[in-house]
């Protein structure tokens, strides 16, 4: 083994990442080569110095308190979220309760009667009005819808809806 | 990192709030130092420390074996730091800048500062591999898996980073 190959393998040798024949080869070279042995010792010193340097990285004072405070806040937020979700579910589900209310059934019944009366009135009117008048009313309605749409377009022309809603 | 306070970990796992407070106080220095060594940024290291303990708080009950706490915590720290590093990949410092570290006789504090400064200037790819090996004690195959790179790349990054640090240290002492 030459020095270049040995140097390339020194890190793996230190980290026990070599297989047995490779390890023996490196050790045999180290026995004969003081330069490579010195380099190995210097790399070992890097390990020790690095451990030491990281161990002395100053920790910001009160960091543990800050972490605990953020956890408390997180717990509080989680609790608040549960309460808000429950409240929202109750509010969303509350209309279902109306089905069981007599007020709701009376209201629904009135709506049904009103809709039925309107339907009968319309049927009676259709029978009385002549076909020519019906056609006139139909055309007038279409014209009114067209004029209405045009007017709304005019009104909204200066409003930049995309900017408002984006 | 101390891995032996099993009673404390067991109590925390069981939901004891006081034990969790003690656990945070006890492990904050290790978590912060590891995060700082990898990220080289105080604010980011503080953020990661908070994230780590939040994950610990939410998941410690899933830990099946109390003895695995050390490696479990180590993995949470590493993954959180790697996520932060992915979000902000630092521009590698040219090798010439690494040579600018002053050459003079050093005491222990000088040496620590020089190493910390060199770590900061080391390209992030080399730094993460080196710290994961030297400080966190991961094997090459574990580092390769965590970083999603071939084992051969891990070997060369660790070796290059060590040679670079060794050069700076020997130059400084000499």
Account of the protein in words:
- The complex is a heterodimer of chains A (166) and B (174).
- Chain A is an all-alpha fold and 166 residues long.
- Helices cover 85% and strands 0% of the residues of chain A.
- Chain A is built from 7 helices and no strands.
- Chain A has helices at residues 3-14, 20-32, 34-55, 63-98, 102-128, 131-156, 161-165.
- The radius of gyration of chain A is 43 Å and the shape is elongated.
- The relative contact order of chain A is 0.03.
- Chain B has 174 residues and is mainly α.
- Chain B has helices at residues 6-13, 17-39, 42-59, 69-87, 95-98, 108-121, 124-134, 140-147, 151-173.
- The longest helix of chain B has 23 residues, at 17-39.
- The model of chain B is unreliable at 97-105 (pLDDT under 50).
- The A-B interface holds A 8, 10-12, 15, 17, 39, 42-43, 45-47, 49-57, 59-60, 63-64, 66-68, 70-71, 74 and B 21, 24-25, 28-29, 32-34, 36-37, 42, 46, 49-50, 53-54, 57, 108, 111-112, 115-116, 119, 130-131, 133-135, 139-140, 155, 158-159, 162-163, 165-166, 169-170.
End-to-end distance of chain B: 33 Å
Largest β-sheet summary of chain A: none
Oligomer: heterodimer
Radius of gyration of chain A: 43 Å
Topology, please?
The complex is a heterodimer of chains A (about 170) and B (about 170).
Chain A: H1 3-14, H2 20-32, H3 34-55, H4 63-98, H5 102-128, H6 131-156, H7 161-165
Helix pairs in contact in A: 1-2, 1-3, 2-3
Chain B: H1 6-13, H2 17-39, H3 42-59, H4 69-87, H5 95-98, H6 108-121, H7 124-134, H8 140-147, H9 151-173
Helix pairs in contact in B: 1-2, 2-3, 2-4, 2-7, 3-4, 6-9, 7-9, 8-9
Name its key features:
A: 166 residues, mainly alpha, 7 helices, B: 174 residues, 0% strand, globular
Could you give a short description of this structure?
With 166 residues, chain A is an all-alpha fold. Chain A has helices spanning 3-14, 20-32, 34-55, 63-98, 102-128, 131-156, 161-165. Chain A is built from seven helices and no strands.
């Amino acid at each position: 083994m030459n020095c270049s190959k040995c140097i390339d393998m020194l890190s793996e040798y230190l980290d026990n990442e070599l297989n047995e024949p490779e390890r023996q080869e490196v050790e045999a070279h180290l026995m004969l080569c003081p330069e490579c042995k010195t380099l190995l010792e210097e790399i070992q010193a890097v390990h020790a110095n690095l451990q030491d340097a990281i161990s002395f990285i100053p920790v910001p004072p009160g960091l543990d308190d800050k972490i605990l405070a953020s956890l408390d806040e997180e717990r509080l937020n989680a609790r608040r979220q549960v309460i808000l979700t429950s409240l929202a579910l109750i509010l969303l589900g509350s209309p279902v309760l109306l089905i069981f209310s007599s007020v709701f059934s009376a209201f629904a019944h009135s709506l049904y009667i009103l809709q039925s009366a309107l339907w009968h009135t319309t049927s009676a009117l259709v029978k009385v009005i002549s076909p020519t008048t019906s056609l006139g009313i139909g055309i007038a309605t279409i014209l009114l819808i067209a004029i209405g749409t045009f007017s709304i377009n005019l009104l909204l022309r200066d409003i930049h809806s995309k900017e408002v809603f984006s | 990192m101390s891995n032996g306070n099993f009673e404390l970990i067991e109590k925390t796992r069981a939901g004891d709030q006081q034990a969790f407070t003690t656990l945070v106080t006890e492990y904050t220095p290790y978590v912060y130092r590891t995060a700082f060594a990898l990220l080289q940024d105080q604010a980011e290291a503080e953020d990661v420390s908070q994230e780590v303990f939040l994950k610990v708080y939410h998941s410690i009950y899933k830990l099946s074996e109390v003895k695995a706490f050390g490696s479990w915590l180590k993995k949470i720290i590493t993954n959180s730091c790697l996520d932060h590093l992915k979000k902000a990949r630092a521009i590698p410092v040219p090798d010439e800048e690494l040579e600018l570290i002053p050459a003079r006789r050093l005491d222990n504090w000088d040496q620590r500062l020089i190493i910390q400064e060199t770590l900061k200037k080391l390209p992030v790819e080399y730094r993460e591999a080196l710290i994961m090996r030297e400080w966190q004690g991961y094997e090459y195959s574990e580092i390769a898996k965590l970083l999603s790179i071939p084992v051969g790349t891990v070997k060369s990054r660790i070796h290059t980073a060590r040679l670079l640090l060794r050069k700076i240290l020997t130059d400084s002492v000499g």
